[in-house]
Amino acid sequence: MLSKFKITTKYNDVYDITSEVKKVVEESGVKEGICLVYNPHSTAGLTVYSPWDPAGLEDLDDEIRRLIPTKVDFKHQHDTPQDAAGHVKSALLGVSVTFIIHEGKLMLGGSQSIYFLEFDGPRSREFFVKIQED
Amino acid sequence: MSKYENPMSRQVFSLPELIRQQYDDLEPKTRTVLSFQEIYNIQRIVLTGCGDSFAAGMATKHIFELLTGIPTEVVPAIELSRYYSEKHLGVDCRNPLVIAVSNSGSVARISEAVQRARLHGSYVLGITGNETSPLGINSDKVLKLDIPDFESAPGTRSYAVSVMALLLLAIRFGEVRHQYTMDQAMDYRYDIRNQGALLEELLPQMDSICEKVAEEWKDFPCFDFVGAGFDYAAAWYGQAKILEATGKFAMHINSEEWFHLNFFARDAKHIGTVVVANTTNPGISRTKEMIKFAKELGRPMVVITDGRKEDFGEETTYIQVPAPKYPISMPLTQYAPICLIASYIAELIGEKYGRGCEEDWEFAAGGAGVKNSEIIVK
C-alpha cells in the first residue's frame, strides 16, 4: 500500500508529518509490518526529532546550517548556493525513515515526531508512505 | 509576408525561431559564465555599448534593478572610456561589474571603455560573438554569442539576442542572490522562450498594418519615436532603424520630454510618430496624455502596445505586440513592428541600408567608421 501527500513549503522550513503517517498506518489495517516514509527530492530531508520544545527544531536548523553553511564556493554552480547546500544537507540527513508497525500502530517513542525538512523552498513537494505487511 | 519584403523584414520574420534557438544556446551559458562568488561580489552594474548594444542596455537596465536589487547604470561607451569618474571604478573589490555588449567585439570605443574599466579595477563581462576580438580579449569573462548567419540588414537579430542575453543574466543574478526561487527563475525563463511563439502568432496582422503604414509614411521627411522607462529603448532603437534603413531624420524622446520639446515641431501632419506604450509601464498615464495631444496636433501616429485601442481611447493605428506573462519579457519583441515599417519604407523609396556605404558614405564601409578610431586609455 502506497500513499502520496503533497505539501507546499516555505524557505528552509520544517513540517510535522507524524499525524499523516499514523493515519495511513491505522487505515491500512496492517497489524505487524514495516512503514517506510520517503521523499523523492534532493534538497529536502526526513528525520525524527523531539516535538516537545519548538526551540529544539531551531537548534537542529542551527546545527545543520553550522555544519553545511550556504556558501558561494560550492563546486555545483548550476543552480544556486541555497540549492547546492540543500543537496548536501539532504544527502547527509537522508530522504527516508523506516518504522515498525506493531499491533496495528506506528511504533514511535513518546518524544519522537516525524519531520519533513525543506532545505530550499518555497517549493511544491511530496512524500510517500509505504506499508509492508509481515 | 509583404510584397515589399526585404532582408530586414525577413530578419523580423526569423525572430520566432531565433528566440527559441538562442534561448537553448544562452540559458546554459548564462548559468555558468559567472560563478556564485562573482555574482555575490556585485555591488553595482554598468551596462555599456554603442548603437543597438547601447539600446539593449537601456532595454534591460530597469529589469536588472527589478530582479536583482543591484543599482544599475547604462553608460554610453564614450562616457565610460573618457569621462566616467575613476573614483567610481575599482571600488568594493572589483566593482562595478561592467557588462559590455558588442556582437562583433571590434567596436573601438567599447574596447577602449573596457580597457579603462579594468585598468581602474572594475570587473568586465563581455558579451560578444568573437572571443578573440578586442572586447573578448579585454574582458575578464566572455559570454559567447553564436547567432546563426543571415542576410545582412540593420541589426534586428543581433539586437534580439543581445536583449535576451542581458535578460537571462539578470534572471540568473536574481536567482543566485535568492531574490526569488529557482522555480520562479525558471518561470521567467520559460516566458522569455515563449515570446517566439507569441510573436509568430501576431506577425501576420502586424505585417499587414506595417505595410500600410509604410505606404502612407514613405514620403515623410522625419519621424518621432516616443516611449518612457521600459519602452524608451524601443523608441531609441526605432529612430536608429529609420536612420539606418531609410536615411531619413528621426528623433527619440520620452513621453514627458515630448511635452517640453518635440511637440513644437511644425508640419505635424508629415511627422510619422511612433509611440511605444506597454500597458504595464508605470509611465503609461503620461504616454496616454502624449497620444491625446499628438492626435490633436494631427500627427500621423502608430501606437505599439501589448494592449488594445480600448486601453487608450484614441482613434489611431495600434499595432499589437506580444503580452508576456511577465513584463520583463516585453523588450524581446516590442521593436519588431518598427523594423518592419523602416524596412518597407526603405524598399518603397529604393533606399539602400546604410546608404550602401557608397560615395560619401564609403568611409564607413565594413564598419570602418566605428572600428578605426584612436584608442586612448587612461
- CATH top level label of the largest domain in chain B: Alpha Beta
Taken together, the total number of domains of chain B comes to: 2
CATH architecture of the largest domain in chain B: 3-Layer(aba) Sandwich
Percent helix of chain A: 25-40%
Total count of helical runs of at least 4 residues of chain A: 3
Distance between the termini of chain B: 51 Å
Can you count the beta strands of chain A? 8
- Give the strand order of the largest sheet of chain A, numbering strands 1, 2, ... along the chain: 1-8-3-5-6
Share of residues in strands of chain A: 35-45%
CATH architecture name of chain A: Sandwich
Examine the coordinates and then state which fold CATH places here, giving the name of the CATH topology of chain A. Jelly Rolls
> Major β-sheet of chain B, in short?
5 strands, parallel
The named CATH superfamily of chain A: YjbQ-like
Series of secondary-structure elements of chain B, N-terminal to C-terminal: HHHEHEHEHEHEHHEHEHEHEEHH
* Overall residue-averaged pLDDT value of chain A: 95
User: How large a portion of the residues of chain B is in β-strands, by DSSP E?
Assistant: 5-15%
Distance between the termini of chain A: 13 Å
Account of the 3D structure:
The complex is a heterodimer of chains A (134) and B (378). Chain A is α+β, with helices and mostly antiparallel strands and 134 residues long. Chain A has a single domain (2-133), classed as YjbQ-like (Jelly Rolls, Sandwich). Chain A has helices at 18-28, 54-67, 81-93, and strands at 2-8, 14-16, 33-38, 44-49, 96-102, 105-106, 113-118, 124-133. Chain A has a 5-stranded antiparallel β-sheet, with helices on one face. Chain A starts with a strand and ends with a strand. The relative contact order of chain A is 0.39. By secondary structure, chain B is of the alpha/beta class. Chain B folds into 2 domains: 7-194, Rossmann fold (3-Layer(aba) Sandwich), CATH 3.40.50; 198-356, Glucose-6-phosphate isomerase like protein, domain 1 (Rossmann fold, 3-Layer(aba) Sandwich), CATH 3.40.50.10490. Chain B contains 14 helices and 10 strands. Chain B has helices at 7-13, 15-32, 36-40, 52-68, 77-82, 108-119, 134-137, 157-176, 182-217, 232-246, 255-260, 284-296, 336-349, 368-371, and strands at 45-49, 72-76, 97-101, 123-128, 141-144, 222-226, 249-253, 271-276, 301-305, 317-320. Chain B has a 5-stranded parallel β-sheet with strand order 2-1-3-4-5, sandwiched between helices. In chain B, strands 7-6-8-9-10 form a 5-stranded parallel β-sheet, sandwiched between helices. The mean pLDDT of chain B is 96. The interface between A and B is medium-sized, with 17 and 13 residues.
